[in-house]
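Can't attach files on this board, so I'm pasting raw text. These are the components:
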Amino acid sequence: MSEQNSENHNDSQAINERHRVRMERKKAVIDAQIAAADDQPIGIIVVNTGNGKGKSSSGFGMAIRAMGHGMKVGVVQFIKGALSTGEEKFLRRFPDEVSFHVMGEGYTWDTQNRERDTEKAQLAWQQARTFLADPSIGLVLLDELNIALKYRYLDVHAVIADLLERPAMQHVVITGRGAPEELVAIADTVTEMGVVKHAFKAGIGAQAGTEW
Amino acid sequence: MSEQNSENHNDSQAINERHRVRMERKKAVIDAQIAAADDQPIGIIVVNTGNGKGKSSSGFGMAIRAMGHGMKVGVVQFIKGALSTGEEKFLRRFPDEVSFHVMGEGYTWDTQNRERDTEKAQLAWQQARTFLADPSIGLVLLDELNIALKYRYLDVHAVIADLLERPAMQHVVITGRGAPEELVAIADTVTEMGVVKHAFKAGIGAQAGTEW
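---
Top answer:
Structure tokens for the assembled complex are below.
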């Protein structure tokens, strides 16, 4: 082995060894966290908020994750009803596994009628309540609920009361910009989706498959 | 009508009218953006990064969105292979619509062997390349690719070259913490998922349906 090759070989060995030690430490930290966490299964409340992409699609991803574990899923779409999205088309293939309720009428900036929006949001919440009272449903997705709360179509305290009374094992995923503080306070996991870059703002139209 | 009632009525009318005007303006802004955006369908690159939840689940949500539009999907899971997740279980029900490749061996902090990880990542990338060369696949999900790039199991420039050579209509979704700058630079939509609150850190174990 030439001196150069031998140096390269030693460098590469050193990198691999540093990597091994670092990963060993990481494993120890993660194992300790897992050991410390309560292993009892329990339903959690997940909130996806912020101005970036991925709030609803992450909720739908969690829905199929739950379905993969044999759970039934209830979906209520607030606000977004006018769009027949790819997710809806896809999930309607599984009527025994997914119950779907779409509020209808589309975005409030299309209807411009606050009273009608409020009435529809209230009706959608009644549907949400039936899911939240049904222990056979493992995950409830309340898509764009935060928008309905932001415009005060629904009262946040009434909504929280219903959420907290749900079956112990039921998961809830709530999406939409501007999650109210009160909701963040009672949630288990909250993620803020921030915009780094958005194709739409760069002048690329909304694309089937990724945007709707 | 009593004076009090009449005042309440006027208040409520004023709120509704302000709402109407605000929504009208919002609609005008959104309509203008839609008009300005290029309506030609084109494949985009979406990157979900950051330390928060929802990067992978959003990618899987986009996968079913694409399936709802009749597209075929190719999934390569980098790093995460050891876990049989709910998404995988679910998507394996549709072998004609979803091609699935899992790198195997699980998290690198379990294996602690850099050379073996590199080899496996390279093999997984070969699978990714076959998807990226196939115009019949409408969306390619490269789950946790950013981790493989971060540990330099794969060369970011080689990966970018392959991404840019893909069919014009094909969407790509890339997930994982620490997306490299070079990748952000060529992506169309980039979202940073930030942690506001995490159930796991609060001592609640990972839950089937929401976490795996």
